[in-house]
## 1
Amino acid sequence: MRYLKEVLQSRELLANLTLREIRGQYKRTIFGQLWSLVNPLASMLVYTLVFAFIIRVQPEAGDPSGLDIFAVWLLCGLLPFAFFSNVVQQGMGSILGNVGLVQKVYFARIVLPLSKVGSVGYNWLFEMGVLVVVLVICGAFVWPWLPLVVVTMFLLAVFAAGLALILAVANVHFRDTQYFVSIIMQIWMYLTPIIYPISLVATQSDKYGGLFGTSVTILDIYRINPMERFVAVFRQLLYDNRWPNPQDFLLCAIWALAVFCVGLWVFRRSEKGLAEAL
């Protein structure tokens, strides 16, 4: 309780650090906030060209929305994963990026990675707002599902923050962490059904059946990936325009709470030694 009180007392510092990150991102640029759309749009164009027109991957049409547009289907999964990846990688480097502040002034160090969640989340809200407009133009009836979309965005932010807290500590003690995580994030994206539908995994899973003579299939192992659940919920809400699968939504909440609690515990135990380790 004492630690939480200390964190709450640092809320003004958290707000100031978040605003500093937001204002400094696109300072003195002509297009400003529009630059946050460049990476996801460029990725969308490349993946759409390769997977929709060359490899000809065909995800199922939205049910019951009826949408059948690969680029929109792709963005519904790509934007959440991009947010997750950015929060984890930027939050991981937040302590090392503020060495002078950490060594000279005492404050709740947890505000440094949390400020990254806020600044990246600000960009994500802008990107998701543009996606909602595109969905409406394409004929999706997305408005009733926006409250649940916001709840799911919050759960993903909590999940990403928990991982960022753990990795921020690891990165202080083992500087190679940031390079390993960068590679892992690339692999993680391809192990998540973002640019291909999960039905392709299910088909291969059915082909091989149970592994090692058990009832456990490739699909069962594949779905342990928490980001698979988050992407599924976002697509059910935004692309399909329907209630999310209760199991998927519940597992998102469990993953978010569990990882954040572990991250908070790890960060709290290591916080006092961070200045010396730097």
## 2
Amino acid sequence: MAFEIPRIPLAEWCDVALDWATEHFSGVTRAVSAVVGAGIEGTTDFLVGLPPWLVIAAFGLLVWRLTTARIALATVIGFAFLWNLELWRATLQSLVLVLVSTLFALAIGIPIGVTAALSKRFWRVVAPALDMMQTMPSFVYLIPAIPFFGLGAVSACFATIVFAMPPTIRLTALGIMQTPAELVEAADAFGSSRWQKLFKVQLPLAIPTIMAGINQTIMLALSMVVIAAMIGAGGLGGEVWKAIQRLEAGQGFQAGIAIVVLAVILDRITQHIARHIRRDRQIERG
């Protein structure tokens, strides 16, 4: 009789764990889903209800305030182009989903990154988990989202948060850990407490690195737009998904180009802010 190595029942263990979590926490997650879903839909409906030219002008003025006139003009042209393609509602749905997911990812990821930077033991636990999260296929994140939150934008938001959060955690931790040792020693010499050292020395110097993590988080969140459309997220990803189902190549390329335009706008804004912060820090240190 041939010797057989027993199979590890990993799939069964995952099913049991997911069933247990769904049974015990689905009530809470469905309540959260109702609140977050109402917020996403309300924000989207409010923006869609406004005249597109007014929203575009407001975005342009906001970007001009945060960046430069050139980036603001590019933003206005980009959004006007998306309006002309009759993808305005889908664009706003995707934009709201990306921004909400990014805000939640930052709210969760930055504190975890700070904790990981201050605790080597915690970092040794977090680092392998981040490696696994960043190598896991993005489709896998949709699996637990549906039992907890059902189909729709909230499930897509949950999957996007988990998928896009690792860069924020990793770069926040690395930014703090890479603070020059002489500055930390100087803060200790002046009798700074741990929190004073963190908020007055380490975090300010780590902001450019954290901004790079925010930029990556936004790009990853946007990359989930098409995948999240499979569970009813709508938006530009929904347009791509419908084009795939109907074999409408032109509509699919049009929606794909719209996603690229939105990605370029968000990328240029965050990169400019990061460069501006980095330049200010160099001036302060110089």
